[in-house]
Amino acid sequence: MFGWPFFVPASASVTSHSRAGVSIMTATIERRRAAMELAVFGGLALVLRIAFDPLFWRYAGPVSLVATLAYLTIYLRRRGEGWSAFGLIPLVGAKAKLMILPKALLVFGFFAAAVAGILFAADVLGWAFMKEIPQGVDDRWGDVRGNLPMLILWLGIVWTAAAFGEEMFFRGFLIGRTQALCSGLPLASVWAVLVPALLFGLGHAYYQGLRGFITTAAIGIAFGTAYLVLKRNLWPIVLVHGIVDTINFVTLYHGAER
User: Fold this and answer.
1) How far apart are CA 25 and CA 228, in angstroms?
2) Is the pLDDT reported for residue 124 higher than 50?
């Protein structure tokens, strides 16, 4: 009676080892694919931004991101995939649509906690630069003040390249592929949130400086955490991102940002 578990048929043992081998091979292929996609599309976004910068530096970021997403969409479709796998899930029925609002409140809670944490840390550490608006911000958006056509233009960019584009790329795509790359490693989900958040911060540092890098990286961590908590549902994060940026631009339009 004590010996029966040790008498495993040879065929069963071979099958078990074969399945384990296939599983390891599949995981390895997935990690290599993730590394390739991160390098190719991350590099593409960077190269396009640098290329567009001398032509129209104010819009180089949004245009390069939209172009990268266009190429990425074509690539995903050729692989039989879509953006639903990265967070733009179908909202079937009235209940699914209505649930976006309470989920958005949760996302806003993460966002508010990140911003409050950064402001508190800046006070404690004496970071005076965190209270100063970088010159690059005024150079890029200063003409929005009192200028309705420019406000409308930037609100259009907010709800396309920023709310949708940045969330699709930095949260949906980069978190998903970083998590696949780190699969099997300790704290894989932590790295999956942290690495894209740092890249998100770097993507804003070229005109917002160190203050912009710290603030947007913290917001990236908040949004990335919310993305995983909400089981990879991007819609509430897109909504919060768009509303926050809209408030910022309307405030700037009225000259009340200072």
Assistant:
1) 26
2) yes
